[in-house]
Amino acid sequence: MVAAIFSLTMQILCLTLFSLSLLCTAFTSRDYSDALEKSILFFEGQRSGRLPPNQRLKWRGNSGLSDGASYHVDLVGGYYDAGDNVKFGLPMAFTTTMLAWSVIEFGNSMQNQIENAKAAIRWGTDYLLKAATATPGTLYVQVGDPNMDHKCWERPEDMDTPRNVYKVSTQNPGSDVAAETAAALAAASIVFKDSDPSYSAKLLQTAKKVFDFADRYRGSYSDSLNSAVCPFYCSYSGYQDELLWGASWIHRASQENSYLLYIQSNGHTMGSDNDDYSFSWDDKRAGTKVVLSKDFLEKNAAEFQLYKSHSDNYICSLIPGTSGFQAQYTPGQGLLYKASESNLQYVTTTSFLLLTYAKYLSANGGVATCGTSTVKAESLIAQAKKQVDYILGDNPAKMSYMVGFGQRYPQHIHHRGSSIPSIQAHPDRITCNNGFQYLNSGSPNPNVLVGAVIGGPDSKDNFADDRNNYQQSEPATYINAPFVGALAFFSGKATAN
């Protein structure tokens, strides 16, 4: 009985006092710092183009060096989105935005990883700048035919599938992908403002032009490009959320009044009146509300009260016991569960928003209001920590869902480059069809894609370490990007206590 009472008391302390919660975990500041380093290193495994001399994942080689050449445009560089060899603009831009936001909010906690984080952002923005400025009135949004690419299993260094180039234009608009690209460039301009002011200025100037293009020529890129992007990265939420998201980031980067007026004039028609409880490469509503709530909390600006209220509703949906609670959690250790495919993308974005909103509340003495009750920042942090720790191995399977972290992690991830012998180990070409022997092999991947966070377990905490089960075993840049910020937060907090 005494032991039970003590256990209950410790649970309560762990929930309400963050400093004590650090004592209630298997993870130390060193663990979070190690995971942070690995989460950023992952992006080197996703690089397309000519790799730099300081490339750390040595099993990767140059790839896609003629991307865009047949269209007389330089589209070399950027990131492969997941386990394939296509460069999809919408998730790449969102990934870049989230990496930048991670540095903006939690860069002070990244310590010796800050330059690696900036390098990961710059690899994305260098490419997005090319895509946005190569041809007037045009934004290049994709390289590679996904339907053909998915019929092959080959290393990016060997790929011989068509490198078709896809674009949106004044005649074939893509407001969603263009406005997300503007958000990425604007957010990154904040990151580089002090360390590289000329680059920062170029990013912001381009962001404004791309946003103007997105706003003036409205339409969804899914309608313009059809099967090239659907069903892979269809814009299911439409483009209104990206327009408000893009304007919010340019306002934050520039502090120009015209973008504030745009937000005030258009916010209510762009989904801000609706409470949506997921945040992803497709749907930016929850993230936008958190971004804009900062202005209300810091400046008590009445025009942003709406966004604070909607951010509260989002937060309340995640916290058990509140009147607005509606999230689903798995039975063991309570992982947030939203989708059977790549569920951890929602876990990492949600964790990031919880921590960012907690930061905004803490800095301004605020709380989240859930009906007649309130939720303090400490509760948001505790909920985010539960999700982060689950991914790192505090779960029923006792498995880390970050490759290369911990004693036990997935060995058979759905990733072409990781699963096929590297060009260093096997210099001879491995053709499209010959690669399938590695997809179907029971052997562990020969190349460890360090830091990759994969799709994760199902609604019952079950996970199959199976390369063919892409829903659970495929990594993606947009899963990792918000996790960088979350890990930086806990690395910094752990160090301080």
What does it look like?
Keywords: Carbohydrate metabolism, Cellulose degradation, Glycosidase, Hydrolase, Polysaccharide degradation, Signal. Residues 1-26 form the signal peptide. Belongs to the glycosyl hydrolase 9 (cellulase E) family. The chain has 19 helices and five strands. 55% of the residues are buried. The chain has a single domain (19-496), classed as Glycosyltransferase. The protein is mostly helical and 497 residues long. The protein has a three-stranded antiparallel beta sheet with strand order 1-2-3. The protein has a two-stranded antiparallel ribbon with strand order 4-5. Helices cover 49% and strands 4% of the residues. The two termini are 31 Å apart.
Short key terms for the protein model shown above:
Glycosyltransferase; 3-stranded antiparallel beta sheet; two-stranded antiparallel sheet; 497 residues; mainly alpha; 5 strands; disordered N terminus
Brief overview:
The chain has 497 residues and is mainly alpha-helical. The protein is 49% helix and 4% strand.
